[in-house]
Amino acid sequence: MTCSILPALPGLASADGFVTPAEEAALIAHIDDAGVSPFKFQQWTGKRLTRSFGWSYDFETGRVAPTDPIPSWLEPIRALAADFAGLAPADFIQALVIRYDPGAGIGWHKDRPVYEHVVGLSLGAPATMRFRRRINGKFERATAPLAPRAIYHLSGEARHGWEHSITEMDAPRSSITFRSLARSK
Predict the structure, then answer these.
(1) Which domains does the chain possess?
(2) What are the pLDDT digits (tens) for 114-167?
């Protein structure tokens, strides 16, 4: 595993080869069997297919609520992701699995303020995570490649100061995202 913090984007850490190809294939199969459904945001339905475990954010009410427990097949990955981020596995209260079929992507956004640390594992086709932030009326931009089996951690400035997105995919891709709750100030 190679870890690199991109100097242009403090708070973004990434590592390639986080899981083996066999583990990747097994995780993709679990995601495909997890009952993923089209992502819904208010009256909009996205092309990516998702399912939350542990806790789920309801875009209609703006609240986080319990949902189905994090399944046992995600627990070893949760522990590895927590170690990568320097957190305890129990800190990750949400696991979100996503399948991006051809034509699916994710638009510009910041993860909801109720969450703090965001750790993602990229599976299947390679992708590029794009970042932007508005400075003096213009966008400053950065990119980070997401190789198959790569992990990333968004914290601090990368998590709170930048939006991120993934362009529409030409090939199938899956991901697992773990999130911790933000601490009350």
Answers:
(1) 2-181 (2.60.120.590)
(2) 889 999 999 999 999 999 999 899 999 999 999 999 999 999 899 999 999 998
DSSP 75-143: HHHHHHHHHHHTS-GGGEEEEEEEEE-TT--EEEE---TTEEEEEEEEEES-EEEEEEEEETTEEEEEE
Identify the residue whose tokens are 């034509």. 103
Q: What region, left, alpha or beta, does residue 37 occupy, with left being phi > 0 and alpha being psi -120 to 50 degrees?
A: beta
Q: Are 72 and 34 in contact (CB under 8 A)?
A: no
Is residue 70 a contact partner of residue 78, using CB atoms and an 8 Å limit?
yes
Nearest CA-CA partner of 14 in 110, 102, 129, 95:
129
Whether pTM > 0.85 for this model: the answer is yes
